[in-house]
Amino acid sequence: MDIQKGSADNMETKNMKQIGSQTQKNTRVPNRILVNGKEKKPRKMGIQIALLIIGVVVAIMLVTNGLNLFISYGKLRDSSMKQIEIIADQTQGEIGNWLKMNTYVMESCLDYVNTKTSQAGRIAYLTGIKDSFSAIPKGMYMGLSGGMLLYPGVERSSLGVNYNPAEQDWFTQIVGKEGIWCSRATYDTVRDSYYITVSMSVDTGDAVLAADLYLTEIEEKLLELATEDQAEIFLLGKTGELIISSREEWRRQNFSQIDATLYQDMQNKNMKESYPIDGEDQIVAVADLDQLGWKLIIMVPTAAILSDCYSMAVSAGVGMVVSVLILIILVALVVHAIVTPIHMVNDCMGKVAEGDLTHVLKVTSATEIGSMMTAVNESVGSVEGVIKNMKGAIQTLTEEVTDGKEATETLEERSHSIAQSAEG
Hints:
The structure is a single chain. By secondary structure, this protein is of the alpha+beta class. The protein contains nine helices and 13 strands. Helix content is 57%, strand content 15%. Strands 3, 4, 5, 6, 7 and 8 form a six-stranded antiparallel sheet that branches. Strands 10-9-13-12-11 form a five-stranded antiparallel sheet. Helix 2 packs antiparallel against helix 8 and helix 8 packs parallel to helix 9. It is rod-shaped, with a radius of gyration of 54 Å.
């Protein structure tokens, strides 16, 4: 009987050790995860998700902004070309109107001069209108084929002793002909301005009415127009002399000496879209003023376009930073909503692994995460039920073993009693 009892006690002790050993095996090692059979430190999934989303969005924004800047640069360049064309049209219009207005004035004066046959009447008329026109500060003058000069605005002696109007181009090129003759631009050092000589033949065919048209007013208008449009204007004479220049240091120079390549391309009518001038890239357009034989050059620095692009890039950068900050906040909220329930499930399963089956997850969402948490609760409940059933079965088995031991002891006692009786 004592041997059987000791055997039962040994079995119970062995079972307890196995349970204890199994519990020890189920205890988790903190901060370690088996990945493909290798231990690794756990990582924060929320941070990985956030970095991935933000990285992808920032990359998309950078590519998009880069493409927008590239497209914007092309559009701004095209816009600058159109702006140059508009400036050229306006400049041509200003010069054309200036020339037409002054030639119309001269034609009106010529009509009146044609009605005067006496030299005294002509001189009186020219003297009377000497100070009437701002573009003709010296007044109009008349040359006769005999060498006489009617010029109320200038002393004859100032022109030189041998000055003969009948030998000058303004006389010989138009006398006895119809129309208007215009000379090349000449620089007046006293007035610090270029002027052109315009002449017309008198009806008698032996005299020419002429005037020196100064470009002072038209120069001011053109430079003002260029300043408003952030461009540079250059007006070249027939031989390349700079009649009007937005750059003070280029005044009274020949453009062929400033930029030989651009000047040669103008002469050959083989213009490029841009030229490096004084170390700065310039968008250049050229227009011909056929009536005067001049050339108009309009320049806009590409740096102005790049400056506009830079401003756009700064604005886009600020917008992108604000967007990224908003994105970080939204991603943080989304990741928190996803990762927090996962952490709760992870903690719950950790406690289950340590033997605590009493922990119940609080389900706060009807989404897939809520379904997962409900399934975890149900799984833990099922495991707890299985363990309770196992405990009940073990208890029943233990009671049956105990009853068997008591029955065996009773049978042994009876057998011993019968044996004693038989011996007696």
